[in-house]
Amino acid sequence: DTKRRDLVIKMTDIRSMEYQIYSRLAECRSLYDSHTYPNVLPPTAILDSPYAFAFVAMPMWSTTIGMRQLDTVGQVMQFMHCTLAGLTLLHRLRIAHRAGPISLPTARDISESNTLINWYCCQCEHLTDRHCDERLREHRRSPNAVYALFDFDLSLILPLDASLTDCRRPGAEAFMGQGIYHPPDVFQGERYYNPFPFDVGCLGNLYLNWLSRAIPVVPLLAPLLGKMTTHVVRDRFTAEEALAFFTQIRASLPPEIIDAPIEHEADFDCIMDPDRYWSQLPLEFQSRWKTHRPPPLHWFPRFLRWMCGSVTGYAMVARVRRCLKI
Predict the structure, then answer these.
(1) The Cα angle at residue 139 between residues 138 and 145, in degrees rounded to 5
(2) What does the DSSP assignment read for 191-214?
(3) What is the pTM of this model?
(4) In tens digits, what is the pLDDT along the chain, a chain of 326 residues?
(5) What are the φ/ψ torsions at residue 34 (nearest 5 degrees)?
């Protein structure tokens, strides 16, 4: 373009929510201010046509995030800050991401492949050039590394006055896309769900899967992730609350912790069992932050989840809920 940036151009249906989302993002001035950039990839132009489609131009960034390559606490903090800030902006604009930050790029949840970094190399996309890959590592280590959410194929856009806490959408929507990071908001046959805390739960589960080894180094991540992923939806942090809590954590870290090396391995068990990461912390700390720890699941929700584990069982529970209007 005129600023000598490489662009990617995507075709979108003008009758779709995706088109409405890009139009709303284009009106958000903070997306185009380098001092306030809130970590959502902005459209640089929306090119309408005489037909039922339009072209959306966006900066060319890299999808090669490589969670294992976030090799210091500081890099982990930067990734978490950017993704939380991006989700906070989307929710302020009443956009439920559902196609976010490994799943397919069109999956309807927050995953790594729906997050970009502000660096691009045509060879790095296929990891065929070791020099290119090393340059990306160096960029991640620099203070210039920025991550952004993108991909709104299956996202929702709601009126700007929609409630973040009381929004209700059909529960069947929560099953769309790959469910690797889905919170259990409809695992008990619920008729409705709220897509905004659902987003927060997806992002929290992403952190738990890949970044749980940072918790012993930064213990306050445990209460943050506990409140992002609790199965009690009404107690779950909003994106804005999670960002505010995280900002306090980050500001309190001394330089030696920021620069501490760290290795990552996927640990899906942390999503299923909060005790797996809480048990790594001192008992006194656990007691102090017990209000942020997900409570045990009672026997009746466990029974409903067991029932809903099969197609027949789910249909039975859903039918009872419809009849009782619960």
Answers:
(1) 145
(2) SEE-HHHHHHHHHHHHHHHHHGGG
(3) 0.91
(4) 888 888 999 999 999 999 999 999 999 998 888 778 889 999 999 999 999 999 999 999 887 667 888 999 999 999 999 999 999 999 999 999 975 444 433 344 456 678 899 988 766 555 556 777 788 888 888 888 999 999 898 899 999 999 999 999 999 899 887 788 999 999 999 999 999 999 999 999 999 999 999 999 999 999 999 999 999 999 999 999 999 999 999 999 999 999 999 998 889 999 999 999 999 999 999 999 999 999 999 999 999 999 999 999 999 999 999 899 88
(5) -65, -20
> What residues pair up with 170 in beta bridges, in sequence order?
192
Residue 72's identity, in one-letter code, is T
Written as one letter, the residue type at 138 is E
> Under a CB-based contact definition with an 8 Å cutoff, are residues 122 and 136 in contact?
no
Write the CB contacts of 218 (distance below 8 Å, at least 6 apart in sequence).
Answer: 73, 77, 249, 253, 257
Residues 6+ apart with CB under 8 A from 227: 235, 236, 237, 241, 242, 245, 292
Q: How far apart are CA 198 and CA 196, in angstroms?
A: 5
Integer Cα distance of 115 and 84 in angstroms: 12
Cα–Cα dist 88/245, whole Å: 13
> Which amino acid, residue 10?
K
Q: Specify the DSSP class assigned to residue 299.
A: H
